[in-house]
């Protein structure tokens, strides 16, 4: 039974109760009393039903309100968790970026250290056919001086090789540097200086593969200064010690050129 129908029934019964005295005049007293009692009983029953219905509705409303409050709280919790999750994701992204930057910085620093170390680490090279170990700066200094010589600036090359010998007296490039000093002097037409430097080179490093070329230059410089005997001795030494070298072939030609021309005349 709905609430509206119940209310209408109560209103009807109330009208009957109000009009009960008039109705009682028509009925006998006993019948009137029974009718009134019956009506009251029905009213009480209906009132109890209404109260029960109201209690049920109140309970349902309370449960709905509790459910609604629970849903609102759950939504608030979910929203709060979403915000916290977004915050955590942002923090993780920031940390990842910082970590990436730190790793890059560490890698760059390691590369810098490695490059600095490599600048001082010895390197393996081959000098005049022999393996050797030299410093990086040492090799750069030698290569730089040799580049100057090959450019044709023999005065600057002589200076560069002389400075190299002073800076690296124990260098594996030492014999080659001494040879290029003499060659630079000869290229500048400093025959005396070239002779002294290359003869010293030959005496200090007799097994160096550049000795044949050095003896050839010494002999040529001596010839140019007018020392034909000294030139001949140098060419002969070259032929005796290194007969198969390309320099020896040139030395033989120049030795032949040093021989005096045969005298020409008419016999009488």
What's a concise summary of this model?
This protein is mostly helical and 268 residues long.
Strands side by side in the biggest sheet:
1-2
Order of SSEs: HHHEEHHHHHHH
- Write out the CATH superfamily name of the largest domain: Tetratricopeptide repeat domain
Count of separate structural domains: 2
Label the CATH architecture of the largest domain. Alpha Horseshoe
> Major beta sheet, specifics?
2 strands, antiparallel
- The share of residues in helices is over 70%
Report the β-strand fraction as a percent range.
under 5%
**Class inferred from helices and paired strands:** mainly alpha
Radius of gyration using CA atoms only: 62 Å
Distance between the termini: 177 Å
**Unreliable segments of 5+ consecutive residues:** none
* Average pLDDT reading: 84
CATH topology of the largest domain: Serine Threonine Protein Phosphatase 5, Tetratricopeptide repeat
Number of strands: 2
Instruction: Label the overall shape.
Output: rod-shaped
- The CATH class label of the largest domain is Mainly Alpha
- Alpha plus pi helix count: 10
Give a verbal description of the structure.
The structure is a single chain. The chain is mainly alpha-helical and 268 residues long. It has two domains: 3-89; 123-258, Serine Threonine Protein Phosphatase 5, Tetratricopeptide repeat. Helices cover 80% and strands 4% of the residues. Strands 1-2 form a two-stranded antiparallel ribbon. A hairpin with a 2-residue loop joins β1 (123-127) and β2 (130-134). The longest helix has 92 residues, at 29-120. The protein is rod-shaped, with a radius of gyration of 62 Å. It starts with a helix and ends in a 10-residue tail after the last helix.
């Amino acid at each position: 039974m709905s609430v509206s129908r119940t209310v209408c029934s109560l209103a009807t019964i109330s009208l009957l109760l109000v009009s009960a005295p008039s109705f009682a005049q028509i009925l006998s007293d006993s019948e009137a009393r029974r009718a009134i009692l019956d009506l009251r009983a029905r009213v009480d029953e209906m009132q109890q039903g209404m109260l029960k219905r109201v209690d049920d509705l109140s309970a349902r409303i309370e449960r709905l309100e509790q459910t609604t409050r629970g849903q609102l709280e759950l939504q608030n919790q979910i929203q709060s968790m979403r915000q916290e999750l977004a915050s955590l994701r942002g923090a993780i992204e920031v940390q990842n970026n910082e970590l990436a930057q730190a790793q890059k910085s560490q890698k760059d620093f390691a590369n810098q250290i490695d490059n600095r170390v490599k600048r001082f680490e010895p390197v393996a090279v081959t000098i005049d056919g022999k393996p050797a170990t030299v410093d990086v700066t040492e090799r750069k200094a030698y290569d730089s001086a040799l580049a100057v010589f090959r450019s044709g600036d023999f005065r600057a090359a002589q200076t560069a090789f002389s400075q190299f010998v002073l800076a690296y007296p124990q260098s594996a490039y030492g014999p080659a540097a001494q040879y290029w000093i003499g060659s630079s002097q000869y290229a500048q037409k400093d025959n005396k200086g070239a002779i002294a430097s290359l003869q010293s080179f030959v005496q200090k490093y007799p097994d160096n593969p550049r000795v044949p070329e050095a003896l050839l230059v010494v002999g040529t410089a001596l010839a140019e200064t007018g020392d034909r005997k000294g030139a001949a001795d140098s060419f002969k030494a070259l032929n005796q010690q290194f007969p198969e070298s390309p320099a020896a072939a040139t030395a033989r030609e120049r030795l032949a050129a040093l021989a005096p021309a045969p005298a020409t005349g008419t016999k009488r």
